[in-house]
Fold this sequence. Notes:
Elements: H1 2-14, H2 16-56, H3 63-68, H4 77-87, H5 92-141, H6 144-199
Helix pairs in contact: 2-5, 2-6, 4-5, 4-6, 5-6
Amino acid sequence: MEIISKALFWVANSLLIPDIILLLLFFGRSILLIGGVYNQFMIKRKTDKSLSERIKTLTPESLDTLREHIPSEVNSLFVVYLKDLLTSPSSEDYSDYLLSEFENKAEKDLSLPRMLSKIGPILGLLGTLIAMSPALVGLSTGDISGMAYNMQVVFATTVVGLVISAVGFVTLQLKQRWYAAELNKLDYVARILQQKTESL
Length: 200
């Protein structure tokens, strides 16, 4: 039994370094994600300013006007699919295909913040539990400096894991809301296109 316990202890301790490395990598990725979301927000604000009102008041006759006002320098997911929707030959099947493709691409973009929101607490808890064991050993042997060092690792891994999770959760909520609104706009434009096709 003692051999098994020592083996488990050795395995658990050997996971601390990989856990800390992963935490640092995901923390760096979460910082980059914040920058990406800010950039996406600025692009969204720009496109909303020029397109939202036109889409809201869209009629089959004003489709050409909307097509002309699509910003050519913007390559956001919404703008790319809106261009495709307005320039391709209009058919209900193709419109449904484009909307499904948009949903798939949006879901793919949401996978990173979703993963960060779940993996952050897992890695943080792993680091906490692994470092807690030598801290308790240090306490029992009177090695206060060793215990203090291990407690620093305990708190650091917990905090970094929670920060990663918070970034993932907040960005996931924002992106989900944005993509839902954009999908609604694309669906509305597709319906207006279908009305124009049926009236011809």
